[in-house]
Design a protein that fits this description.
Blueprint (H helix, E strand, L loop, with lengths): L8 H27 L7 H5 L4 H14 L17 H11 L4 H25 L9 H12 L2 H9 L3 H13 L4 H14 L7 H6 L3 H21 L3 H10 L16 H13 L14 H23 L6 H15 L11 H12 L2 H11 L4 H4 L17 H25 L9
Helix pairs in contact: 1-6, 1-7, 3-4, 5-6, 5-8, 6-16, 8-9, 8-16, 9-11, 13-14, 13-19, 14-15, 15-16, 15-19, 17-19
């Protein structure tokens, strides 16, 4: 580093201040896991018991020990992951008492976060090494992202998948490493498969073949031994039905759920009684499917036209598209955006990304609209909301999300300026 590149005293203070603030926020997240101080800010922590999702992984491990079908679990939204996850992570957690297993999960997740911070300070983007302030800002991204708190509260593994996708994005110029990271991400959460069109565009056929082979070898034997389990897995992840009252609710912040909620309220259909898209009027179902088709179609056009593409921005476009097309987008799922925001900011330093991050990172004003706050059970405050409240609530996440998606569309075919 030359004398011109060394940070000035004010620059060093800014770097230290950013990192220290991020650490302070993060420690408050961890403290709140014990005290519950932040729980009123989110639907899931207000109305769901801590480690609710973690219990599904734990029970899947116990089910395997008992020789039971993991896809027959009557817990939460059921076990929605591949058999390999239950046979590895689920079995390991099931070796311990539930509380010990959850604490082990928290420790593993925090260690993964530390690894992400290390890579954030080591990775050199295609545009060249970012300065310390930009790396410090990206560090703040990791440490002060409110959906991460909800991730820990629920005991989810979306962050594990996101961390492997972070490695994938950082290793795009090394196909073998990127392919291994992507395969690992898909084995934890199959929604990582949304990157298939991106990998086809880059002609990463070995990565695609390796991932497909791994998924088949580690999943097919279980599905063959348990007739009906494959159908259950597909229905849970891709079906358009839910248990009654769960088709759209305050915990689901995706565009799909927003359109379902809007349709139901306009048509006078109680959310508490809905379980499938077929119960909506034709115009409502059409709006849902057309929105999905529009997002996927646009992404495909930008992927497979003849113009050169920026691999980093194209991968980010597909990862962002997930939130606009999938039926279930819980608030903790937004940790999937963390690697996207981090690598894009390290690459560009765009001020627009700072705004987008800030809007997604802070909690929605859910607590203003909540009902029976802190009461656990089958409670959905959205059933009491009018159309305006539902639209306003989801707009706090969907507006910056759509802004990010449009920002990426403009940059897929060229490298943005340093100021974004």
């Amino acid at each position: 580093m030359t004398s011109d590149e060394r940070p000035t005293a004010p620059g060093r203070r800014a770097v230290v201040g950013l990192v220290a603030t991020g650490v302070a926020v993060h420690l408050f997240f961890l403290l709140s896991l014990r005290t519950g101080w932040l729980n009123f800010l989110f639907n899931d922590s207000s109305h769901t018991r801590q480690a609710f999702d973690f219990a599904v992984f734990y029970l899947a491990g116990r089910a395997l020990e008992a020789g039971q079908d993991i896809y027959g679990l009557q817990a939460a939204f059921g076990f929605r992951y591949l058999p390999a996850f239950a046979m590895s992570v689920g079995r390991i957690f099931a070796l311990f008492p539930p509380r010990t297993a959850y604490l082990l999960y928290l420790a593993i997740t925090e260690l993964i976060l530390l690894a992400n911070l290390w890579l954030t300070w080591r990775w050199i983007p295609p545009s060249g090494p970012p300065d310390r302030r930009r790396r410090a800002t990206a560090t703040f991204f990791w440490l002060a992202f409110s959906p991460y708190y909800l991730e820990l509260y629920m005991g989810q593994v979306s962050f594990w998948t996101a961390s492997l996708l972070f490695i994938f994005l950082c290793a795009l110029e090394r196909p073998r490493a990127a392919g291994l990271a992507w395969t690992g991400a898909a084995l934890i959460k199959p929604n990582a498969l949304i990157l298939v069109p991106f990998l086809l565009r880059l002609r990463r056929f070995r990565s695609l073949g390796f991932c497909l082979l791994a998924l088949l070898l580690l999943s097919l034997p279980y599905f063959l031994l348990h007739p009906g389990s494959l159908r259950s897995f597909i229905d849970l992840n891709l079906g358009t039905r839910h248990f009654t009252g769960a088709l759209a609710h305050a915990g689901n912040l995706g565009l799909w759920a927003g359109l379902v909620s809007l349709t139901a309220k306009l048509a006078g259909l109680p959310l508490a009684e809905l379980s499938g898209l077929e119960e909506l009027p034709l115009w409502g179902r059409s709006a849902v499917f057309l929105s999905v088709a529009a997002v996927i179609g646009t992404a495909l056009v930008f992927t497979f036209n003849r113009r050169p593409v920026s691999p980093l921005f194209l991968a980010a476009l597909w990862l962002t598209s997930y939130f606009l097309i999938y039926k279930d987008v819980w608030e903790h799922h937004f940790v999937f955006l963390l690697p996207v925001l981090v690598v894009l900011y390290l690459e560009t330093g765009s001020r627009k990304l700072l705004i987008i991050f800030s809007l997604i990172a802070i909690p929605t004003p859910f607590f203003l609209f909540d009902a029976q706050s802190g009461v656990h059970g089958n409670i959905d405050p959205e059933r009491l909301w009018n159309i305006g409240t539902s639209l306003l609530y989801r707009s706090f996440k969907l507006t910056p999300l759509i802004a990010l998606w449009l920002w990426l569309l403009k940059r897929v075919h060229h490298t943005p300026s340093p100021t974004g």
